[in-house]
Sequence to fold (340 residues):
Amino acid sequence: MPQTINLEESPLWNCRFVGLIVSVMSLMASLFVLLPPMMGREFVVTPLGVELPISSLLLFLLGMIVSGPFYNFLFDHFTRKKVGEIAVLLTVLSTLGYMYIDQINWFYAVILIHGAAFGTVLNLEFSLHIDVSNPKLRRRANRALIIGIFVAQAFGYALRIVLYDFCTDLVWVYYTSIALGILSLITLAVVKVPFRAPIVRAACSWDRFFLPRAIGLSINVLFFAVGTSLAISSNYLILGISWLSVLIDFALFVVVILAIPDLLRMYIGLTAHCQRCTINNTLMLTWICGFILGIVVASHLSTLPLGCLDLIALGVIVLAVLMYFTLTRWLYKKLKKREM
Fold:
């Protein structure tokens, strides 16, 4: 029997919205807890002793990008929650696979699948939060969702440092990621969403995936993400694994979180109507691409004299700030569709 939900009188933090927030934050933390915080070499060693190049993280990004054009078809042609539950399960199985695979080519395939599944469920959460939010409060709900995702990134990355500090066996990193993934799956499964009849869509589309009009703003966000990632990597190289590293990690993310409302306002201003799902995915895809690119770049620059990576990170961030106040704002004023 289709579920009918009256949203008109529901508060912002209704139980369905809270469930989705917990689900997407758990999902994001499950990814960031896996990202390598120490950039002293270009390889990470898996539990079975396979030396995996850090540059293989680029396959994760490729998975997110390749799956993107199919989001609109998947979510409108099939039951959304079922697609999301399968995708979360694939992320959990991918993490489990990292613990038991001993062939590097299989690792590459699993990383690609992990990226595609992660991108799919993240985009689905963007769609579902609209379905369970009071129409009058959707702008506030959207802002809360995006800020929650960035908080989860900081938490997941810092949690990995804590696990490095307290656990001699790094298999606990994988266990933690799997536990967070299972939490994401459970909370998604129990959330009730309104019934939506299947709609015929084109197999490939920019809708829900990326907003081409925002390419200039996205390049700016990419630079901010790379700079932040380089700064965090440099922080761990200089200070090592310590609580001070964790605090600086959180401080950098706090600065990013403070900029989120203005970035969202600019993204929304570039659309003729509020394409929240496409906007959110454009922002998060760009940010995750930049952050992982920063990790890969830092792994190749870690042999430079101490402090050089800091200077490079500072240079990238300064360039991003200059770009924002000159080129990005000029492009925004030229391309914006409406006042926000």
The radius of gyration is 20 Å. The first strand starts at residue 43 and ends at 45. The chain has a mean pLDDT of 84.
